[in-house]
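Weekly structure sync, notes
Attendees: PL (lead), two postdocs, one rotation student
Agenda item 3: pending single-chain targets
PL asked that the sequence for the first pending target be pasted directly into the notes so everyone works from the same version. It is reproduced below exactly as submitted, 147 residues in total.
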Amino acid sequence: MSDSAKLDALIKRVELFHGLTPDEVAKIFSRGMTMRCAKDEVLFHKGNVGNQMYVVLGGKIGIYNGSTIIAVLRTGDMFGEMSLVTSEPRSATARAMEDSKLFVLSQTTFDKLLTKRVAIQILMNVIKTLSHRLKDSNQQKSDNLMH
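Predicted structure, written out during the meeting:
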């Protein structure tokens, strides 16, 4: 698969990159970093302050509140994005459930290196993701109250 085809596939699969061109995604990747994490590796703990968000490029990440798993994230999913919006401590712990590959985007990269149009599009994508999560959470609470 060519680099262009890989970027096109990534744009379709990763909500963070929706609405961006392959060139813009390539620039983001050239300024961010990718990392590998081993199964059971903790990426961050609940209560820690963080300034990075992550996109799962491969593998599986568990999001935990204590020992309770509250979400399982797979290829294309993002997490830690609230740290780009607020300076509040992490609301959960993130741990690799299997060997995984992640893209990491820091607050510094976001603030200083992205064009305004790209930064706005990414923020819009983050807002959509957070809105979907809130809607799903509200629906679950509503369903639980009904039963």
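Discussion points:
- Residues 116-146 form the longest helix (31 residues).
- The mean pLDDT is 83.
Action: rotation student to compare against the earlier draft before next sync.
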